[in-house]
Amino acid sequence: MKLHDLRPAEGSHRKSKRIGRGHGSGKGKTGGKGMMGQKARSGPGPYRTFEGGQNRLVKRMPFKRGFTNKFRVEYEVVNVGSLADWPAELEVTPESLLDRRLVRRKKMPIKILGDGELSQPLVIKAHKFSASARQKIEAAGGKAIDLTWVVERPSRSRGPNPSMRNALQS
């Protein structure tokens, strides 16, 4: 096989439609642009949000102040007080919290907050602890173990493949 033998796959290249080459071509005279009007003229059309001169949606919306942080991490929150009646021999893990319906979503990291009192020593595994929660757990004779949470950034391509940043971390 030589360079001059290379051909694209059959059917992968279609000849471009030749516009404005007589009415026999099917795209003659107005070249598929209809009769007159702004969109028939050469050059760029009106801007993306143009609504024919009507006050456009972008202008009708209230002005949004501030910004939203796209790197913000939302946590499922559990207070120490809700773990007061937890059996001391059982470890507190995200899975066990989900089974007992203390948290609803398993795709979110769990944060333990210090509201309420804890009497028995518990081994608690969570992604984050507030300072007061950690203090109350250790005062009761338990352990606060931090779990790692890898933020799953969606792929910027259209496919389901993981982004390179996540591939390098794992």
TrEMBL record:
InterPro entries attached to this UniProt entry: Ribosomal_uL15 (IPR030878), Ribosomal_uL15/eL18 (IPR021131), Ribosomal_uL15/eL18_sf (IPR036227), Ribosomal_uL15_bac-type (IPR005749), Ribosomal_uL15_CS (IPR001196)
Region (Disordered): 1-52
Basic residues biased stretches: 14-26
GO biological process: translation
Keywords of the record: Ribonucleoprotein, Ribosomal protein, RNA-binding, rRNA-binding
Domain Large ribosomal subunit protein uL15/eL18: residue ranges: 77-144
Molecular function as annotated in GO: rRNA binding; structural constituent of ribosome
Pfam families on file: Ribosomal_L27A
Family of the protein in this entry: Belongs to the universal ribosomal protein uL15 family.
Assembly description: Part of the 50S ribosomal subunit.
Protein name per the record: Large ribosomal subunit protein uL15
Gene from which the chain derives: rplO
